[in-house]
């Protein structure tokens, strides 16, 4: 079996260190960007120097690598009308593609606003159904208020509130329609 001796240095670690140092050295030596539109030498001088000036080694700054254009002002996005006018002025012809973008969408205001119908009056509601709704909604509210403000409420009052809530809920469930309309696709509530 091949065991590693703690007194000897790890051979993999020295190789990793050598690779890391080589990578760092190569990155530090590539401080000048290469672009296809550069002078005959193929490299641009560091930022802030003229093309014919002698090179001075400066550390790279944020402006040297700015793919998102964050160093300067952000580019202004033209509206569809401005893009269309610029394309027509530049070529003398109509643009080929669609001229509107998602930000250029305007809502057509035809005046046909949705107006919901008036809800039915509660005056014609069955009194027993109204009491059941009051018990179903008022029971939990009464329990919450008694827990907050009436801590010494008798057990009979708490059991009564719970019983009213259960009976009202059962009554309302039993009043639901039992048959389903065969012509209804379920789109209406």
Question: Can you walk through the features of this model?
Answer:
This protein is mostly helical and 189 residues long. The model is unreliable at 32-36 (pLDDT under 50). The chain has a domain at 126-174. α3 runs antiparallel to α4 (155-174). Helices cover 39% and strands 0% of the residues. It has 4 helices and no strands. The radius of gyration is 39 Å and the shape is flat. The longest helix has 23 residues, at 127-149.
Structure summarized in a few sentences:
39% of the residues lie in helices and 0% in strands. It has 189 residues and is mainly α.
What topology does this entry show?
Layout: H1 11-29, H2 80-91, H3 127-149, H4 155-174
Helix pairs in contact: 3-4
């Amino acid at each position: 079996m091949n065991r590693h001796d703690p007194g000897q240095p790890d051979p993999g670690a020295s190789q990793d260190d050598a690779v890391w140092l080589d990578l760092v050295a190569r990155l530090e030596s590539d401080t000048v960007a290469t672009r296809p539109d550069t002078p005959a030498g193929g490299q641009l001088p560091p930022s802030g120097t003229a093309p014919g000036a002698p090179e001075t080694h400066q550390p790279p700054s944020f402006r040297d690598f700015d793919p998102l254009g964050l160093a300067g002002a952000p580019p202004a996005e033209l509206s569809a009308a401005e893009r269309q006018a610029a394309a027509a002025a530049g070529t003398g012809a109509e643009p080929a593609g669609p001229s509107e973008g998602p930000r250029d969408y305007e809502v057509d205001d035809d005046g046909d606003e949705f107006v919901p119908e008036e809800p039915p009056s509660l005056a014609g509601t069955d009194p027993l159904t109204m009491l059941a709704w009051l018990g179903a909604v008022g029971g939990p509210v009464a329990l919450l208020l008694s827990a907050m403000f009436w801590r010494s409420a008798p057990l009979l009052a708490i059991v009564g509130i719970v019983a009213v809530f259960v009976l009202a809920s059962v009554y309302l469930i039993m009043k639901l329609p039992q048959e389903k309309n065969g012509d209804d696709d379920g789109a209406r509530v």
